[in-house]
Amino acid sequence: MKKITLSLSMLLAIGKLAIAQSTDIENKFNREEAISHFSYLASDELKGRDPIRPEIEMAASYIASEFEKYGAKQVPGATGYYQLIPFMMSTPPKTGEIVIDGQTYEQGETLLVLSGPDLEGSYELVDVGFGLEADYEGKDLKGKIAVSNVGAPDQMSPAALFSLGAEKIKLAKENGAVGLVEMFNIPSVPWQLVSRFLNRTQLTIDQGEAGDLPYIWVKDSKNSIKSEMAKGEMDEARFKIQKKTNQAIEGKNVVAWIEGTDPALKNEFVLLSAHYDHVGVGEPDANGDSIFNGARDNAVGTVAVINAAKYFAENPPKRSILLAAWTAEEKGLLGSAYFASNPLIPLKDIIFNLNIDNGGYNDTSIITVIGLGRTTADNLISEAVSEIGLKAISDPAPEQGLYDRSDNVSFAKHGVPAPTFSLGFTAFDDEINKYYHKQADSVESFDLDYAVKYWKAYILAAQKIANMSEKPFWVPGDKYEGVGKSLYGIK
Ligand SMILES: [Zn+2]
After folding, report:
1. Which CATH architecture has domain 92-244?
2. How much distance in Å is there from the Cα of 359 to the middle of ligand 1?
């Protein structure tokens, strides 16, 4: 009996503590201030926070000055509150043309010049299989063009087609080639889609000299070019790639940190992150609006991180907090991926990433946590959300692969447990599509009472995780459990 009474009173004490935490956040939360951050970041003035437009700078400097104002500190190794990223902004060539065996391939139609300088003249073609290391053995590429297939025998997903590019360009260059032309022959990935996406201004991480080689995709679904080459009937092509512009620009992740209070646990970091970029300006909609304000995607998340900076700078938890506003998520997770490859805090010291990203919401009684249930801290997220008066649900559309499509995956794939805290949605329905990547995604169409609850729940969830006694980890059997074990040195 005694034992039971004790544990009951302990339970009551824990309950009171939980209530105290959420009440403290409720009391200290400044609604007007948070909404003013939100209105500014999603304002027309910032022109949709596009990393290839100058107005993104105003967003970055606003976030940095709020971090500073609230007392979050600069991260050692950063430039002030920024992690600077060398971006390359490139436009398609004015003329992009290759003539192979009497047939002309043109930019945007059956040809895409992806990177590199202009190229003119006739060059010999050499088949290099998939363009991987072994494919170059015994072949002379000096002054010639390497012709390969896109992807690799076991890697044909759209993501793999892109990510293999950098390594293949490097190999072609090392072997003396003057260009790399890949045959796009994958029926499962529609060329039209690829072409629409790539035949416009692109932002990539500047590869330096390694990227200094013309890199071209040619649509050849029937493999006719390579079979002609194999027959020995054709081994030359005429190139006319003119006026492609490649401009180095500087990108900025905004980062800061708050020291934890526990002498041992303060060496561990909980990363609170959200991307602050959006898709910029486009064609006007029916109302004549051409600015994509991106209130849901992802000004609301950026404000959540700013609010967390304010609360935790005044009320630090046991573990340290790393705050990050990523750039260029919409260009392919560039900012978060750059940080994960060039971490200012060692990744093994980042024990959890509570990321935020949003398409929209269709249910203001819930919060949707992408990946809920995959880590041992997730019960704390659910608890925090309930204490604010909402309910946490897991990803309702796993077939969309959302977990692997936002900044959290930049960390998850290195082993850091990393769910994404999203506005409440139960399906990708018309209500979501009304706003998702549309001009209508603005603060005017946002339920601000719901925003305030969302922001409070995020702080409370982060606080619980930063104070939990054991270190959070992936649940057994998770896709990222193995890489997590090697990151943290768990046997
Ligand atoms: Zn987003």
Report:
1. 3-Layer(bba) Sandwich (3.50)
2. 6
